[in-house]
Amino acid sequence: METDRRYIRGRIDYLEKRLSELEKRRKLQTERRKKTGVRTIALVGYTNAGKSTLLNYLCNENVYAENRLFATLDATARKLSIDGTDFLLVDTVGFLRDLPHHLIEAFKSTLESALNCDLALIVCDGTSDYAMQIDTTLRALRSMNFSSPYLVVVNKKDVLSESEKSDFPADYTLISAKTGEGIGELKEKISARFRSEYTDCVLFVPYSATQLYMAKKKYLTQQSVSYENDGTTIVCRIQNERVNEFSRWIKSVLTANTDTFTSDTLRSDTVSEMNVRKDLL
Q1: For 22, 61, 72, 262, which has the most beta carbons within 10 A of its beta carbon?
Q2: pLDDT class of 10 with cuts at 50, 70, 90
Q3: Rounded Cα distance, 233 and 205, in Å
Q4: Average pLDDT for residues 9-16, to the nearest whole number?
Q5: In this model, does residue 273 exceed pLDDT 50?
Q6: d(Cα 134, Cα 125) in Å, to the nearest integer?
Q7: Global model pTM greater than 0.70
């Protein structure tokens, strides 16, 4: 009996150490993502709501998904591209009603990516008690100081009747992670949430500045590139906080947050060339 106790204690100590190491590693990963400007979207919600199935559909992946308690124990991250912008989509462990506090603490390292995400997608099963699922998820997240914006995603739209669909709040997004129904609307809502954080520009980079441009390229998403006699024309999407770093090359602005630009940081000839379509802000 004493031998068993020592073994169990040893396993607990080992797992606690591993969780601590994972938490440190994820903090470093989070800091690195913030430096590169990659926006993170976390899939959170009640267990068996279809989070892993949704990730598989959105990213054309084959992440393990099973109708089983805690089928996802470690955070799975995949690249998701919407309208030319790349995001990091993270799947997380599912929640349970009245989940013991010590279990929440145990999963905290796994949920680190969700707690630090730029947007959370709270996924619930539309065929079950969705209000309870959302409440359980938010209670658990807020107990760990979660404060990120979120969208509510109701899964299994394909098996809901028209009258059942009409019962959900208008701001909820109904989808089927199995058939793909409603995924287009979900992507549009995600894109709209981040649209104000980016500026669509046309850059002209002289060949003599190619090396400098390549060092900054990680802060934008190229949508098209054309090579001319004396330089390269690039249609791209730039993070607002990085726009001024590219000001010398901005030929025109397609969409912008006008607060991003000041006469001190942009050349006067660049400002005069801006073509801002305010209806898209």
Answers
A1: 72
A2: confident
A3: 6
A4: 73
A5: no
A6: 10
A7: no
